[in-house]
Structures are given as C-alpha cells and as structure tokens.
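Justification of computing resources. Each target in the renewal requires a structure prediction run like the one illustrated here; the chain below, 278 residues long, is used simply to show the kind of job we budget for.
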Amino acid sequence: FSWSRIADIDVAFPLLHGPWGEDGTIQGLFEIAGVRYVGAGVLASSVSMDKPFTKTVFSAAGLPQLPYVTIQPWEWNAYRTRSLARVQALGYPMFVKPARAGSSSGVTRVTQESDLIAAIELAREHDPKVVVERSALNPREIECAVIQDAQGKPIASEVGEIVVQTGPQHDYYDFEAKYLDGTSQNVVPADISTGVKERVQTYALQAFDAVGAEGLARVDFFLTDNVDGGLVINEINTMPGFTPFSMFPRLWEASGMAYADLVDHLISLALNRDLGLR
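Resulting structure tokens:
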C-alpha cells in the first residue's frame, strides 16, 4: 500500500499472527499513520508476543506460573554450559520454545538431557532468544476470552477446553494438532467446577489488565498437578484465531454474543477509541 492509502483506512482489523502481525510492529505503523485499529496497542502487543517479558509482567501481577528459564543469544554463545545447567535445574520433562513465535512453531517437548541441545538449536532457528519451561503434569488446556465493553471495562467469557486425542501422534498441543490433522477439539463450556471457572475468569481479566491489552484477547491456562490449586497461566494472545470455528468466537457465542455481533462490537470499540496516547 502507498502511505496515502493506509491513511485513508477508517479502521483496520489486523487478523495477523506471529512476527510483524501481533507483535506491535503493524500496530506502530497504524499509530504513525493515524489509523484506528482493532486490538492491543504497540506495547501490549509486543510484551504479549515476547514470552519472557509476558512472564515477568504476569509475575508482577501475582499470577501463578510454572518455573522457566530464558536463554539470551549471548548466553548461549558464550556461556553454554552455564545455560544448560540453569535449564536442567527445571527438571524433565520441559518445553523449549522460541521466545517470540506462535502456533507452536519451533517448540519441542524434551524428556531427556540428550535431546536438549538439539531442541534449543531448533528454537533458535525461529528466534535467537529462547525460553524453557517446566512441563505441566497431566495438563488440561483451559482458555478464556476477554473483550472490553463500550466503556472500556474488560469482561470475561465462558471458559473452554482444548482436548487433543491421546496416542502416539501428539504428546502435546502442537502445530499439526492445531491446524492440520483434526485431532484437537474445542469443548465449550469446559467440564470444570464453578470455582475453577471463576478463578480462570478472574485471572484472565488480571492478565488482560497486566499487559495493558485493549479490545480483545484470549488467555490460556493449564490445569495441572504441578501446583496447589492446579491452575497456572500459560500465555495471552492479543489477536487470537478468528474463524467462526476458532476458540475465541466460540467462547463468546457460548456467552451470548454471535460472531457478527462480536466483529461489530470490536470494530465499534476501535472507531470510538482516541488516537495517540490513551
């Protein structure tokens, strides 16, 4: 697009994933062009895309998480032995991830020391910064959607669960399970107690506020045997999947908001939002 064509847009709905889509870069372009857009601003988008920064913010907000280690590029190049020792202290199994990627790209579940270096190198093919997390034990993937009301107050949706068929194909919710082979299912509402549901919704709202999100987000959790109470936050997505069959719109449909109304609501929020600092 030419600059003049961008500036003529009334409102942008950036349904984009990954780097340059939900990491604050295109949001910054819209800000410079003076174009209103759906969703989080530059800072919230970039913080939510960078897993170690997200975890730091969640920790400051008092949200429960699993232990993790961040490996900076210089650490891996100059102090590999020390980096590996820090990671191994987490215990196996663990997940090795690119710090700023999505859709489980470059992610490996590691169960033994002999596979660790290869997993880190694979993650580094996607991002020179790597995060390693202790694996949740017997996890259930629980998700909650958040939008703002007309006054800007965040509200939480019904709670759902992603169920992946057990078997040798997948030992976690990987790229193929998400998009290719139909082995995952979005279950709405999740079969959980009222108490757990209310905790999920409360934590989702806290996470939304902690990163400074706007418009919409999907917040992902694990129900796990690792911690007392069982619930830990995994991540926040400031531009979640948005097909009619994706978890975010399904959660709002179960909460009484149809797909077309959801789209209309989010565009209305963006049109009524001030440009610049807010």
